[in-house]
Amino acid sequence: MIEAVGLTKRYGAKTAVHNLSFQVRPGAVTGFLGPNGSGKSTTMRMMLGLDRPTSGHVTIGGHAFRSLPNAPRQVGALLDAKAVHGGRSARNHLLCLAQLAGIPAARVDEVLGVVGLQDVAKKRSNGFSLGMGQRLGIAAALLGDPQVLLFDEPVNGLDPEGILWVRNLMKQLASEGRTVFVSSHLMSEMALTADHLIVIGRGQLLSDMSIKDFISANSADFARVRTPADRPEEREKLTASLTKAGGGVMPEPDGALRVTGLPLSRISDLAHASDVRLWELSPHQASLEEAYMRMTQGAVDYRSTTDAKEGLQLPPPGYGQPGFEGYGQPGHAPQPPPEVPQQGWYAPPPPGQNPYAVTPAPAPTATPDRTERKTSEDSR
């Protein structure tokens, strides 16, 4: 089990992590979420003893990472898949790690097979793609068959087959009773992989609960109800009945009703009691992405703006020169340049107005050869 108590890390005047406390329990995949700059990487580095906390502490199995005997046999981690000597082959890289931890060389070939790199084991890692590098990093984390595993963006650069493989691997490791801690920005993948979520924002804990409870707590669940379209009186009757029972009713653009505050069984009973036939009665729950965005909307440090493309649009020919419409006339301000067609910020000039076009030289007049002239004279 991983336990953080009052974890704080400051870099000068900046506080990256502030008074962070949580537990990561074995037997489940725990997702670690937060916006960019929220302190996730700093927290994971403190877990592995790479950064020393300003205050507080974090333990793995009741001990600080640096005090664990033969830590690679107990904790496996993937923080940066690029942290590999590019001149070494995949097998030699893992073999070096195995020798440092007293792990048998046969284990190297086992993990290469687990991550699917057995066919490129003798190739240098500097020629690996991003996805292959991720697989090599996961192999290094699995090398000591540890009980605690930490992964930072493990599916980065993987193809769909690789993403599915990582998802199943995480679940399998957790089902074996291991502690699995995964940081990722892919909400759709976290929704399919994680059992529990720890969410931080600006270095502070925002949420620590199961994924199901997190979605319910940060979204408004509702039911969609649809009555026959050719019977508006039934729709009005059902609306009155649901409102009287304490439900919230809002019309949807497609003619359905959005009902909140009442379970589906209660809605069905009220419709039956009102003698209203239902064409649809379905529950709706927000996705993890929707719940996450709602939770962290106040903790985002980097927000994008609309690109106005200021200064990139070219003025029309003659703009600002005498003879141009509106030039020098009272009350006529210079007109803005015309809008560039939406095909990128550069629009090619119209035909005949390209200053870089080369005017082709006139083709030489063809002179009939001697054979043609002789034939013509013979004919005469």
TrEMBL record:
Gene Ontology MF: a single term: ATP binding
CDD domains (alphabetical): ABC_BcrA_bacitracin_resist (cd03268)
Record-linked PROSITE patterns: ABC_TRANSPORTER_2
Keywords in alphabetical order: ATP-binding, Nucleotide-binding, Transport
Biased composition (Basic and acidic residues): 369-380
Ranges for domain ABC transporter: 2-227
Pfam families: ABC_tran
Keyword Transport among UniProt keywords: yes
UniProt entry tagged with the keyword Transport: yes
Biased segments, Gly residues type: 320-329
SMART domains recorded: AAA (SM00382)
Disordered: annotated span: 308-380
Record family assignment: Belongs to the ABC transporter superfamily.
UniProt protein name: ABC transporter ATP-binding protein
Organism the protein comes from: Streptomyces atroolivaceus
